Amino acid sequence: MSAFSLTKTRFLHGTWEGVLHAQSSGAPPDIRVTLHDQPVADVTVTAMTPETQAPGLHWLLRVPVPPEAVGDGVQTFLIVDAAAQEVLESFSLIAGEALGDDIRAEVDLLRAELDMLKRAFRRHCLETS
Predict the structure, then answer these.
(1) Which residue, among 31, 13, 11, has the nearest Cα to 80 in the 3D structure?
(2) Residues 22/47, Cβ–Cβ less than 8 Å
(3) 107 and 129 in one domain?
(4) What superkingdom does the record give (predicted)?
(5) Residue closest to 47 by CA, chosen among 33, 62, 34, 37
(6) What is the pLDDT of residue 121?
(7) Which range marks the domain in which residue 102 is found?
(8) DSSP H or E stretch at residue 125
(9) Rounded to whole angstroms, how far apart are CA atoms 23 and 80?
(10) Same domain, 81 and 114
């Protein structure tokens, strides 16, 4: 079991950010981020020591999205505690045709459900008046 938990804070300007929380103080975490089983470069883990937090218990994790990850399909990043060999978090990018098909299918399903509800509501109004 990992000695760390990870909470996403934001995904902005091509960089995923989160805060690592340690169960107890100690050495900085050994974090590995992979995309298609290949390591992602330039991942940083920076200690956070605001006055309200004990030093050594919180770290800022920054994962830059490499340009080769932006394209058609689904790209899934895994954030792993290397010491415990446990996945702490993952995030995905979906773009291109894969996204278009999913959105169109979802909109079609929502339209069908809305039409069904409209018919049922109109029938209910006719029956109760």
Answers:
(1) 31
(2) no
(3) yes
(4) Bacteria
(5) 62
(6) 93
(7) 96-129
(8) helix 97-128
(9) 16
(10) no
46 and 107 in a single domain? The answer is no
Q: Is the pLDDT of residue 51 over 60?
A: no
Percent residues over pLDDT 70 in the chain? 89
Q: Tally the domains of the chain.
A: 2
Residue 56: per-residue pLDDT: 63
Q: How far is CA 27 from CA 61, 67, 83, 89, 116, in A?
A: 15, 32, 11, 20, 58
What is the per-residue pLDDT for 62?
97
Residue 99 has pLDDT above 70, yes or no: no
Tell me: do 108 and 55 sit in the same domain. no
pLDDT surpassing 90 at residue 116: no
Separation between Cα atoms, residue 64 and residue 39, nearest integer Å: 12
Based on the fold, state whether residues 78 and 65 are members of the same structural domain: yes
Nearest of 33, 57, 56, 34 to residue 44 by alpha carbon: 33
Tokens 């995905």 found at: 92
pTM here is: 0.72
Judged against a pLDDT cut of 60, whether residue 35 lies above it is answered with: yes
Indicate the burial class of 18 (C-beta count within 10 angstroms; 0-12, 13-18, 19 or more): buried
Verify that 71 and 33 share a domain, yes or no.
yes
